[in-house]
């Protein structure tokens, strides 16, 4: 981990939004009451990104620079002081200095899950309670650097780590199988792709739920026909309930 930057606790965190508690809508912690910290900025530009308000520089003005203490204060306010699960997402939260926040939160009993595409490794991955590595499939238009993904795993030694891959089509499915082959010791979660990007300030943001349901059924059939019984196929619960509305 020689090239991984060390934690500087006084660095400010670029925050797009902090909200909750609500349930985690996807992956291994689906249904778990969670406060969400969505950081601003991403080193990727996926074609179907559903969090553009936390990615595109045109929304940069709406991001705020918070100290770790300010973030934990807001989390405490939202959760009424009850130490819930905190989900760190983005953007790519790995490009933010989150080590100090995790330390402060742990001292109060909070637990931290972080989701990243696996393009930036950080020493403080080892302090997380769960690392979700979500490398992006061909439909995203991005290319995976397998070495960097491995660096992320190495940085998270001792931390529970899972894989999550979004699948839109056959090429994405083949990619998910490749990821699973390279990291066969990690649990794999598959999620049908959600095509419609959210209008950032539109409360009525809706998604093509039939399209998602159809993709979900196809994915279940595909996995079972392949006898890929180690993979878990899950929908995005929050999209089923609220579409792509922000802050839920
Ligand atoms: Fe959006 Fe995630 Fe892709 Fe970044 S990695 S552009 S946040 S989907």
Question: Could you characterize what this model shows?
Answer:
- The protein is of the alpha/beta class and 248 residues long.
- It has a single domain, classed as Aldolase class I (TIM Barrel, Alpha-Beta Barrel), CATH 3.20.20.
- It is 27% helix and 21% strand.
- The protein has six helices and nine strands, in the order E-E-E-H-E-H-E-E-H-E-H-E-H-E-H.
- It has helices spanning 68-79, 99-107, 146-155, 170-182, 209-225, 237-242, and strands spanning 13-23, 33-39, 64-66, 85-89, 111-116, 130-133, 160-167, 188-192, 231-233.
- It has a nine-stranded mixed beta sheet with strand order 3-1-2-4-5-6-7-8-9.
- Helix 4 links the parallel strand 7 (160-167) and strand 8 (188-192).
- Helix 1 packs across helix 2.
- The chain starts with 12 loop residues before the first strand and ends in a 6-residue tail after the last helix.
- The mean pLDDT is 90.
- The structure holds iron/sulfur cluster.
- Iron/sulfur cluster binds next to loops.
